[in-house]
Amino acid sequence: MYQIRDVPGKGRGLIATHFIPRGTRILSGKPTITVPEQYVKLDEYKQIAALISEHVDTLNESQRQEFLALNTTHISSDEAQRRFEIFRTRSLPASDGHAAIFLHACRISHSCDNNAQKNWSENIKRHTVHARRDIEKGEEITIYYMGVRRKREIRRQHLQTHFGFICSCGLCSLTPDLGRESDTTLEQILSLDNLLEQDDGYGAWFHPLRRLRYVDQQVRLYNEHGSDDAIGPGYRRSIFPVSLGSLMGLNDRIQQFSLEVEGTRMCHGCGAKATSLKRCGKCLLFWYCGKDCQVAGWDNNSHKADCKLLKDADLRSLFTFDWETFLDDIQFPLGVSKV
Ligand SMILES: [Zn+2]
Ligand SMILES: [Zn+2]
Ligand SMILES: [Zn+2]
């Protein structure tokens, strides 16, 4: 699927040998050297450097050569320090609180508009890399080195300080105007992330709609950000077929007209409360006195549009799902609910 080749100006990188569709697992690798993450951050690096160097000595010849070839821009004449620098700049997260060298995954270059996604999988105890958008034959496979997406200046500074290179990826090379636009969008996405984080834990239980709004807004921003193709089609997805605002409106109408309160329901056509209404035969959610009220609801009270939306089994299930009793995560498709 890929070959390790020289990439001008970057050292060696992974190049796709054929078209890789989004979602494909590109590689999964076992750790070659594993060290507690906190060690790598310590100021007293000499001991750690010695420890890592010892690990490197235990590798077989070809592994050692591959490790040493993980290029780093910190050139040191001290062999232990050089090995430490390779580890510090190229290692990836592994099992709880550990950093590790994965000979292939660690060779993947950084790009701020990365086409692949790295992830430590605790289940299989391997580091996996998946295509986060379609990757063309001959394209370099890239991942994102930093944890959080930040604006250009901060990104570039961080990459230079911690990884020793100046990023010249598609996003970093945008014209000043487009760069500013991208920065503004990223900042908005980030502030929504912060809001979601503050909310974490019980937030999902107490403010599910608020969280949904944040996420919906983020998806919209990602879509906008991707519109110049810098981010790629991977982000172009939407959660719902309509805007969240319209969805909330529909939810309000369902609450008002679908639920039975003390044996009566409200007619969606005329608003009268009655015990013997007939429901819409298509969506089964709205109730009417008779034909005239149904026509009124259809033509004047937006049921024409609502009823069409409610044909979607997942969407309809969202409104009819018994949220009070569910204990675990729910998965789409929810399937057709029994009303
Ligand atoms: Zn960049
Ligand atoms: Zn009526
Ligand atoms: Zn209907």
The number of domains: 3
Helix share of residues? 40-55%
CATH-defined architecture of the largest domain: Beta Complex
* Termini separation: 48 Å
How much is the average pLDDT?
81
CATH superfamily of the largest domain: SET domain
Rg of Cα set: 27 Å
Overall form = elongated
- Largest β sheet strand count, sense and barrel closure: 3 strands, antiparallel
Number of strands: 14
Strands side by side in the biggest sheet: 3-9-8
Oligomer: single chain
Order of helices and strands: EEEEHHHHEEEEEEHHHHHEEEEHHH
Poorly predicted runs of 5 or more residues = 227-238, 330-339
User: Approximately how much beta-strand content do the residues carry?
Assistant: 15-25%
User: What ligand species are in this complex?
Assistant: zinc ion
What's the number of helices? 12
By helix and strand content, what is the structural category? alpha+beta
Q: Tell me the CATH topology of the largest domain.
A: Beta-clip-like
In the CATH scheme, the class of the largest domain would be Mainly Beta
